[in-house]
Structure formats: C-alpha cells, structure tokens
C-alpha cells in the first residue's frame, strides 16, 4: 500500500519501509468528526468532505511516537516529508 501510494511513480522504488503503524486516537477522531460535521453544516460538498490519507516519513521512531501522542497541527511542526 505504501509503495503504490506514491504520487510520483519514479519515487516508488526510492524508499524502503521497515514497518508501518496505523494510529487511531479517539480524541483526534472525535475532533475530526466535529470538524467534518461543521463543514457539512456550512454547505461543503461530499466530494470536499471525502477523507484522504497521507503518510509521514520520520527519521527517528521517537518523532513518530511524539506525533502519535500529541497530534500534528497545521504550521506546528518542522516535519515536512509526506
């Protein structure tokens, strides 16, 4: 799934992954659901409300653990590799 999710086919073979972890955080999920309800009430279309996914690439496992615990907000991190 990670290999096939690359935006550029030329990058598909450029990365090797040792493991991927799906993080499910109930607090963050409830925030996302409230955000989506507010956008739907404001008239956003189903296409605009459709969920998409991105993968973050970390240099160190500790960085990933920190994001899993505290979340990732727009303009709040130096992480820039999706």
TrEMBL record:
Residues annotated as domain TASOR pseudo-PARP: 40-82
Transmembrane segments: none
Superkingdom: Eukaryota
GO biological process, one term: negative regulation of gene expression, epigenetic
Source lineage: Eukaryota, Metazoa, Chordata, Craniata, Vertebrata
Cellular compartments per GO CC: nucleoplasm
Protein name: TASOR protein
PANTHER family with a match to the protein in the record: PROTEIN TASOR 2 (PTHR16207:SF10), SET DOMAIN-CONTAINING PROTEIN (PTHR16207)
Gene that specifies this protein: Fam208a
């Amino acid at each position: 799934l990670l290999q096939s999710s690359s935006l550029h086919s030329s990058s598909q073979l450029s990365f090797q992954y040792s493991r991927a972890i799906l993080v499910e955080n109930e607090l963050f999920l409830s925030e996302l659901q409230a955000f989506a309800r507010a956008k739907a009430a404001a008239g956003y279309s189903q296409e605009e409300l459709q969920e998409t996914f991105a993968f973050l690439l970390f240099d160190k496992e500790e960085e990933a653990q920190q994001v899993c615990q505290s979340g990732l907000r727009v303009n709040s991190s130096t992480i820039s590799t999706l």
